TrEMBL record:
Its EC number is 1.6.5.9. It comes from Methylobacterium currus. InterPro entries: FAD/NAD-bd_sf, FAD/NAD-binding_dom, NDH-2. Residues 1-19 have a biased composition (Basic and acidic residues). One of its GO terms (molecular function) is NADH dehydrogenase (quinone) (non-electrogenic) activity. This is NADH:ubiquinone reductase (non-electrogenic). It comes from the Bacteria.
Length: 459
């Protein structure tokens, strides 16, 4: 351990408490959780109030984010603050849980300490890694600047600005070809995120904005959903997937299946050797796990997932657990569990209980069992699909189930109430209540300077 690191270690003294430092090794058992998403937060809550356990939750952001509704922020249905909640506020009543805002960049498994970017070391007895996943551009990181993915609030704000500004720029554009490019929106990836994004952009263009411009007709906007596989929503049954395609087409989305993206550039997207000019491109195609597997020095899957045992313990790293989108856990049939909020949430609940029992009573926990609450996706106004065992729903009923499930899972009564009211308003009026573009956005500055979005230099 280097001198510098030694000096920056948060030494376990009572005076450290205001900084959220772990208590002395001789005192309570120190559990460090990295990540305040679904997995990390539910683990922390499960350990809340446990006497004899001191929990430190570290996240690089100060808020827990409800990612399933990000696309609604990106398409101006709801405002960013309505799907995020400060982690500190959520855990304020769990007196044995401290929250630290900081970016973890390594783990010293020998010394049992987590390393933060600023050199601080946080010692642990038990470590829980729940750092989630990020976008993967299939070996083309250069595509990211033209086709942002949707993972954080900043991503959603940026995409919202691009979508809204494309219409603003088109209104000012005289050249028909340039205008057509500005009014073409390409969504790459036909999974739930891509389907939801494409349907929501169609709703925005064909309804919410339809009367607001004078030189352009937003209803003429071209929305493309590009998928390499033979069908969209590939994890759903064929009939639900076909229904989703028909619904998208009814909304005015052009669905291109069996079209692998060959290039993404400032000009647009190239598929089947042909460039489709598009000013706004959204990436919803691939994800890879956060680099926590590298911190641990363990072998991971190709997408960086950390293999875990039935109790979510990282194989070959005693005292370390991984869950959620970071982990590769298997269902009872041996298939890997999907990267879903409900998986991370159930794993977090399990791990909180299991660690409490193991640390306080020495009990060996039963293996984790995932109970699916169904596969859900929304396509647009009044239209969704739900698959739960043999139960299949589509149309309005599925849309309703999706809405109720998502409102229920939102953290905080205020968020639930506001989001429900926003949806009710959007449902009845077809309007979008969160259409403001921030002047700080780089795309606004570029437009003012005369550069249309899509030709905007990345931040
Ligand atoms: C657009 C979108 C739509 C989705 N829709 C659905 C849906 O409808 N239904 C569903 O079930 N699932 C959905 N998901 C998936 C779901 O959101 C994830 O499966 C879930 O968030 C995984 O939880 P997690 O705790 O593993 O990771 P996350 O929720 O991603 O949390 C990871 C946390 O770790 C923190 N972190 C990461 N690295 C570091 C670091 N180095 N240092 C400190 N902190 C760090 C992050 O800031 C973050 O807070 C969607 C995901 C996206 C992106």
């Amino acid at each position: 351990m280097s001198e510098t690191l030694h000096r920056t270690t948060l030494e376990p003294t009572p005076r450290d408490e205001p900084h959220g430092a772990p208590p002395p090794a001789a005192g309570p058992h120190r559990v460090v959780i990295v990540g305040g998403g679904f997995g990390g937060l539910t683990t922390a809550r499960g350990l809340g109030g446990a006497e004899g356990i001191a929990v430190t939750l570290i996240d690089r952001r100060n808020h827990h984010l409800f990612q399933p509704l990000l696309y609604q922020v990106a398409t101006a249905v709801i405002a960013p603050g309505e799907i995020a909640e400060p982690i500190r506020a959520i855990l304020r009543w769990d007196r044995n849980v401290s929250v630290l805002m900081g970016e973890v960049e390594g783990v010293d498994t020998e010394e049992r300490a987590v390393r933060l970017r600023d050199g601080t070391r946080i010692p642990y007895d038990t470590l829980v890694l729940a750092t989630g996943a990020t976008h993967s551009y299939f070996g083309h990181p250069e595509w990211e600047r033209y086709a942002p993915g949707l993972k954080t609030l900043d991503d959603a704000r940026r995409i919202r600005a691009r979508v809204l500004l494309a219409f603003e720029a088109a209104e000012r554009e005289d050249d028909p070809a340039a205008r057509e490019r500005l009014m073409t929106f390409a969504v790459i990836g036909g999974g739930p995120t891509g389907v939801e994004m494409a349907g929501a952009i169609a709703g925005l263009a064909h309804h919410a904005l339809s009367q607001d411009f004078r030189r352009i007709d937003p209803k003429q906007a071209r929305i493309l959903l590009i998928e390499a596989a033979p069908r969209v929503l590939g994890t759903f049954t064929e009939d639900l997937s076909a229904y989703a395609r028909r619904s998208l087409e009814r909304l005015g989305v052009t669905v291109l299946t069996e079209h692998a993206v060959e290039d993404v550039s400032e000009e647009g997207v190239t598929v089947a050797g042909k460039l489709i000019p598009a000013a706004t491109i959204v990436w919803g195609a691939g994800v890879r796990a956060s680099p926590a597997g590298e911190w641990l020095g363990v072998e991971t899957t190709r997408q960086g997932h950390v293999p875990v045992g039935p109790d979510l313990a990282v194989i070959g790293r005693p005292g370390v657990y991984a869950l959620g989108d970071l982990a590769m856990a298997k269902a009872e049939d041996g298939k890997p569990l999907p990267g879903l909020a409900q998986v991370a949430d159930q794993q977090g609940r399990y791990l909180g209980r299991a660690l409490r029992d193991r640390i306080l009573h020495g009990t060996v926990p039963k293996p984790f069992r995932f109970r699916s609450r169904g596969n859900l996706a929304i396509i647009g106004h009044n239209s969704g699909v739900v698959q739960w065992d043999r139960v299949k729903l589509k149309g309005f009923l599925a849309w309703l189930v999706w809405g109720v499930a998502h409102v229920y899972l939102l953290v905080g009564f205020h968020n639930r109430l506001v989001v429900t009211l926003r949806w009710l308003w959007a449902y009845l009026s077809f309007q979008r209540g969160a259409r403001l573009i921030s002047e700080r956005d780089e795309a606004v500055m570029a437009l003012i300077r005369g550069t249309p979005p899509g030709r905007i230099p990345p931040p």
